[in-house]
Structures are given as C-alpha cells and as structure tokens.
Amino acid sequence: MWLIISAAIISVSYFILIFIFESGWKRIPNFELQKFNTEPIFISVIIACKNEYNNLPHLISSLSHQSYNNFELIIIDDHSTDKSREILPVLFKDMKYFQIINAIGFGKKNAIKEGITLAKGEFIVTCDADCIPNLRWLETIAQFQTIFNCDLIICPIKYSKNESLFQRLQNLEFTSLVASGAGASGFGMPILCNAANLAFKKNAWLNSQVSLHEEELSGDDIFLLESVKRNNGKIRFLKSETAFVLTKPSENIKYLIKQRRRWAGKSTTYTDWQLIYTACNVLAISILILFLFGISFVNNKYIVIFIEVFLFKYLLDGHFLRKVRPFFHLENVWFYSLLLSCIYPIYIVFIALSSFLIKPRKWN
Predict the structure, then answer these.
(1) C-alpha torsion sign, points 206, 126, 255, 326
(2) Which of 165, 341, 158 has its CA nearest to residue 248?
(3) 318 and which of 69, 297, 337, 345 could share a cystine (Cβ 3.0–4.6 Å)?
C-alpha cells in the first residue's frame, strides 16, 4: 500500500510540474520584430573560447553579418593550445568593434568575468564559441530589451545536427530542458537558462557577483538567474525564432555524460526552491520507474503499476513536447519520446549519483 501511495504522490507532483511548464509556454507570446524608431542600445557580446579553431570561422562569420551593428565583440581566449588565437585577427577583418583578450585566470567562468569587466556596453549578451547565431539574433534581443527593459533575458537554443539516432535523442532531451525553462519562466517561476544564449544588464551581473560561486567551475548562468530572481529583477523568455543560436550535440555518450554531470554537479549549491522542486520531481519519478521495474521481477503484481507510471510519464512528456514542437522544429515526437522514456530513468539517476561522487576538475 505504501508503494501505491508513494507512486500516486510522485505522479501527481510530476503532473503539476508539467502542467506549470505547458501553461507557462502558452502564456509566452511569440515575439516578432517590428519597425519603429528608437535609439539602439549598445551591446557587449562576450564569448569565452578554448581550442575552438574549427568553430570560430562559423561563429565570426555569423556575427560579422548581423543585421544589428551597434555592438562590440569581446573574445576571451582561455589558454588555447590550438591555433584559435592566431586565426582570430584574420576573422575579424570585417568587424568594427572587437577585442581579443588572453585570459589571466583559468576556466570559462573566469573568462566570462574578465570579458564583462572590460565591456563598454551596459547590456551584455553571452554566447559559446561553438554556436552559430541567427543573422537577426542581436537585432531581436536589442528590440526585445528596448520594449520590455528586462534585467535578464533567457534566449532559445537548439542543436544544429539531428542526423543519427543518438543526435535525435540528444536533441529531444536538450529541447525538453530549454522548453521546460521557458515554460517555467512564462509561469512566473524562472529556473533554467544557458549562457550559450543569455542577455542581461551589466549592473545586474555586478550586483550578483558575490552570488556566482567562484569556487564552482561553471554555473554562473543559473547562479545569475537565482540572484536576479532574489532581487525581484525582471526575467523573460524571448520566444522568437530569430533569437535562436545553434549549437552542436555531444559527439559521443562519454562527452554527453561528462557535460551533464558537470551541470548536475552544481545542484548542491543551488538555493532556489523552485529549481530544487523541479530537480527532485524529475529524479523521484525516474527512481520510482526504475524501482517498480526492478521489483516487478520479484513480485509480478507490480508490473501493472510500473506500466501505468511509465505510460503516465511518457504521455505527459510527449504531450508537452508536442506543444513546443513547432517552435523547436521537432520531428516524430511520440516515437523519439518513447525511446527516450525507456533510457531516461537510468540516465538521469546515473547522472545524479555520479555527479555527487565525481567532481570535475577542469572546464573541458
């Protein structure tokens, strides 16, 4: 009986969570670029770079062809050992305002910090060196900020490749994270963002410096979000296809696990109860599914409960992903969601446990 009651409580709690995400997503209006005359804001684009020789040409090409020109670009080289530093001056020939900085300290978080400190703009946009922004990326962010005057803007990200089954499953899992963060923001409880596409006021970052946990290798994006949220700052998700940046999926399962473990490893430092509630919900239902699956081999009367909980989660997740499908251009949602549902409980429990046992010692 206790197991049935526990399963019911966890399932109801998970239903509430998905309801929040879906309701929040519906509340966010699509943002369309408009024609109006306002003084453009000056943006500082901050990008940390380490051994990105193959990716930098694509990134710089996209930035040099932006429809919005009122920005400076600051690239901070974090002690690259390839030819990244050598190629940068050549790539910048078509750009007006740019700086190439050799990082003094080590790590991505430190590189971003050094870049923001030198930024001339009062509005900061961060991006990763392996991303490719839409050509109207900065124009969309600038106009959105002009209209809504946010302290922090959560911007959309999606994967650039979806060729293999591994990449398609990665895309669905990553999209679920981005869409959940967007939905939560739309519901008034922002919990997730990603520095690969993030915009914020410089003074919001300066006011949050003491809360960015410099002892952690990364996570400054979530820590910044938490700080702005505590200070009652204005946070919005920018729901516009012209605000997308494309990033590459992980090359193999080893790199994917390493990345997700790094993300999860900072969870003990998070203080926002809404983020903790979300993480605990996802972990709890994953543990429940695994437990029911295992105990079904001992007592077959639990097979029905296992199937019910599994299908319950699968249908909830699939329904939510179907709602966000047009914006993220997802394909065969129900099929890939079924495959992911079979793997995800093992994957999420393994990541959660290993992130507490294995702490990363370097950025990459």
Answers:
(1) positive
(2) 158
(3) 337
Tokens matching residue 219: 């996570």
CA gap 353, 263 in Å, rounded: 13
Report phi then psi at 45, rounded to 5.
-95, 120
Query: DSSP of 274-318, one letter per residue?
Result: HHHHHHHHHHHHHHHHHHHHHHHTT-GGGHHHHHHHHHHHHHHHH
Pairing relationship of beta strands 98-102 and 71-77 according to DSSP bridges? parallel
Q: Which long-range contacts (CB under 8 A, 24 or more apart) does 23-26 make?
A: 23/183, 23/186, 23/187, 24/182, 24/183, 24/184, 24/185, 24/186, 24/187, 24/188, 24/189, 25/179, 25/182, 25/183, 25/186, 25/320, 25/323, 25/324, 26/186, 26/323
Specify the residue for token string 């453009």.
40
pTM of the model: 0.93
Distance of alpha carbon 126 from alpha carbon 74, whole angstroms:
10
Query: Model confidence over 253-302: pLDDT tens digits?
Result: 888 888 888 777 777 788 889 999 999 999 999 999 999 999 999 888 88
